[in-house]
Amino acid sequence: MAASAPETTVPGRLTRLLLVPLVLGAVALIVAEFLPLYEIRVITAVPQGGQHGTGAHHGYALLVVGLAVLPMAWGAVIGGSRPAAYALLALALIALFVVLAIDLPDLNETGLIGRTYDAAQARPKVGFIVESLGATLVLLGAVGNLVLRPR
User: Which residue ranges make up each domain of the chain?
Assistant: First the structure.
C-alpha cells in the first residue's frame, strides 16, 4: 500500500494568508510609534518644538497593541483559536480608537507656536499615515479571520 499524501485543503492554505495583513499591520503599528506624527511649520521653517512624535503623543499605546497582535494573530490563524480571533478584533478597535480619537484631532493644532506666529500651520506626517494603515490592516485581518475561518 502506498503512503498517502498529506491531506491539505485549498481553503486551509488560503486561510493562512490571513496572517499577512495581521503581521503587516502589527509591524506598521510598531514602526509608526517611532515616526513623526505631525509638524508645525512657520512659512518654510519648523521651529524648535514643532515636530511631534507619534509614540510620545499617546504614550506608546500602539506599540503595546502591535506587540499583542503578533501572538494573537498566530493563535487565531495558525492555531484556529476563536478567543484569539476576538482578541484581535478588540486590539484592532483599540488601535483605531487611538488613531481616530487621540491622534486625529491634534493633527491641525498649532498650540503655543500658532499663538506666537500667525503663519504657523500644522501638517500630518508619515507616522499618522503608517499608524492608520496598520490599524486598518489589523482590522481587516481580524474581521477576515472571524468571517472566513470555519467555526
Answer: 16-148
Residue 120: strand pairing partners: 42
Q: How confident is the model at residue 151 (pLDDT cuts 50, 70, 90)?
A: low
CB pairs under 8 A, 24+ apart, for 112-120?
112/49, 113/40, 113/42, 113/47, 113/49, 113/50, 114/40, 117/42, 117/47, 119/42, 119/43, 120/40, 120/41, 120/42
Which residue has 515616526 as its cell numbers?
A: 35
Residue 112 grid cell: 503655543
Q: How many degrees, rounded to 5, is the angle at CA 48 between CA 46 and CA 30?
A: 80
The one-letter amino acid at 16: R
Tens of pLDDT, residue by residue over 34-52, are 998 878 777 777 767 677 7
Return the residue matching grid coordinates 477576515: 144
Specify whether the CB–CB gap between 37 and 149 falls below 8 A. no
- When computed from its CA atoms, the radius of gyration of the chain, rounded to whole angstroms, is 20
